[in-house]
Amino acid sequence: MAMHALTGLSLVSLLSFGYLSWDWAKPSLVADEPGEAGVEQPSAAPPHPPHIIFILTDDQGYHDVGYHGSDIETPTLDRLAAEGVKLENYYIQPICTPSRSQLLTGRYQIHTGLQHSIIRPRQPNCLPLDQVTLPQKLQEAGYSTHMVGKWHLGFYRKECLPTRRGFDTFLGSLTGNVDYYTYDNCDGPGVCGFDLHEGESVAWGLSGQYSTLLYAQRVSHILASHSPRRPLFLYVAFQAVHTPLQSPREYLYRYRTMGNVARRKYAAMVTCMDEAVRNITWALKRYGFYNNSVIIFSSDNGGQTFSGGSNWPLRGRKGTYWEGGVRGLGFVHSPLLKRKRRTSRALVHITDWYPTLVGLAGGTASVADGLDGYDVWPAISEGQASPRTEILHNIDPLYNHARHGSLEAGFGIWNTAVQAAIRVGEWKLLTGDPGYGDWIPPQTLAAFPGSWWNLERMASARQAVWLFNISADPYEREDLAGQRPDVVRALLARLADYNRTAIPVRYPAENPRAHPDFNGGAWGPWASDEEEEEEAGRARSFSRGRRKKKCKICKLRSFFRKLNTRLMSQRI
Fold this sequence. Notes:
- By secondary structure, this protein is of the alpha/beta class.
- Helix content is 28%, strand content 14%.
- The protein has a domain at 51-388: Alkaline Phosphatase, subunit A.
- One of its GO terms (molecular function) is sulfuric ester hydrolase activity.
- Its cofactor is Ca(2+).
């Protein structure tokens, strides 16, 4: 009884942390101009098609925005969301590459071969070249397309680069994790290189500028040099707030009383990013884009709780299929919305942006094109019912199998040892190993984690199937798998249906040719078309030889390959 009372007291105390005030009169550290007030608006652009600004943040937790009760200051995001439509039934993927691939293709991971993990810097892998990307579709509709920020969809060939996949211009990083000032990225001991690119060239001269500020300034320059009469697509993929935890000192000072050091740095990074969004919005108004624009804000996955992020009160964290890993922050802000200032509970997934934005641009995209996304603009703008009724979160056959799962446990329909997750209606099913399933309160204490955190820890259960009614239990505290075997069976059948449409996983071995030392000290493309054909031929020969001969050394190689895969998955 005492334990429950203490738990309740801790949770209530944590929920009491309010949203802090903000001085809107204070000049921004990001802006090119002194402020937004008094800016004269140029004449509005033609009403159709609209300018599209998609802002994606990296590792921002569900709790880490003011309108979700956070202790972090995000006045710009709060205001834009309040004046637009908050998406409170919005889903993304649990890690970086999968969310970005599904955004730009409108397809689930099982339909692009990117079911497993992320694309690592030394892998000869990228977003499949046969996929028509969102910016390419918008180019067909007459749009000028620009990307600023983090790519993380592969770069081993030049054909994989953003400027070859539909973007007219690009400024940003190709890998998934760089220093915010030096733009160095290490993919293991001694494997380090510079990663800031402009177009297809290395941008050595821009080193030293904090990436969030640099990217916001580049967006302002694009808007200043572009005519509002031509439709514009801006994809702003901030590096923030991914590790390393780095922030300008001015932002850290605001959180000097915050006891937890990681949370303090993380909070400063979030507030800096919020001001960057403020100045992007201001630039849209200043240069005549705003009145005919659609601004979409989205996180890419759940927050990393041991690096300052918080998904409270959701379960889990980045890299897991619990709600804390896949429930996204999202809203739409636009003068073109028919019903503003409201919260939408319509089911929306990150794949839906592809057909939705293509539709807004006057193009066509549908399930007939092989898409898994739906056009959800009527649901967002007018409050209509969402056409989406289910989400395949993923099926990853390479992830380490759960010890207690089996085909027999899955009624002979599905091997429950395989990591998978699906949402159908109000029901969510997880199989295999979904990842760490703790409820982690905000890191408000200096000594985190501490013994008090153990009050919300989950002992590792000997199971491989979980079922939740997400509508009634969004925090995933009551597992109903034992009570509703009928629902479990139905959702396992849906997983099996999806799996029949999956293409083989593409997760190739790392190539030593990718080392930055062979590319002048920078990360960049290293493979030619001829080399890729040779590599594919070697892979086919190895596959044929493996079928003909089994040996001890082959088994040993297989063991270490699987071990390496597991270690990389845990590192993520």
